[in-house]
Amino acid sequence: MRNALLDRFGTTRRSDIAEVVFADREALAWLEGLLHPRVVVHYLAWREEQTAPLAVTEVPLLYETGGDARFDKVVVITAPKALREARREALPGDRDTRLLDDREKVKRADYAYVNTGSLEELDEFVMSVVDDLRP
User: Fold this and answer.
1) Total domain count, the chain
2) Which tops the pLDDT comparison, 97 or 68?
3) What pLDDT was estimated at residue 110?
């Protein structure tokens, strides 16, 4: 994979690659085609090793890549765009335009929470989901 990145981008530095792919949809599609299958293989191997009654995985682009088919239940946690932007560092390019709309994610999810409150409120939501899913 390292050689493929060097051949395509001349570097393996994430920040340099991000500048290219978030400005060039074709380059992004190529990178995702390289990375996503490998991530799925690693995830499935990890999941097979789990012995706990519940296993939780954070998956960026879950719906966008069709990854939701690999899960029994999906929890979506959203926040208003202005709040998300305030919580994170500015990212190069227009990354959000390729994401599925939050309303659509919430509609598809089994559980959803709008994270505009405190960490304690978020923890309460998470525990209510865990309690509901616990065998």
Assistant:
1) 2
2) 68
3) 95
Structural domain for 32, as ranges: 1-49
CA distances from 112 to 35, 105, 107, 109, 132 (A): 28, 9, 9, 6, 13
- 105 with 135, same domain: the answer is yes
23 and 5 in a common domain: yes
Q: Are residues 74 and 129 in the same domain?
A: yes
Indicate if the pLDDT at residue 107 is higher than 90. yes
Using the predicted structure, report yes or no on whether residue 70 has a pLDDT greater than 70: yes
Measured CA to CA, the distance from residue 47 to residue 67 in angstroms comes to 14
Q: State the CB neighbour count (10 A cutoff) for residue 113.
A: 20
Query: For residue 76, what are the β-bridge partners?
Result: 112
- Cβ burial of 120 (10 Å; 0-12, 13-18, 19+) is exposed
Print the SS3 string covering 93-116.
CCHHHHCCCHHHHHHHCCEEEECC
Residues 70, 135: one domain?
A: yes
Mark whether 76 and 27 lie in a shared domain.
Answer: no
- State the pLDDT at residue 91: 55
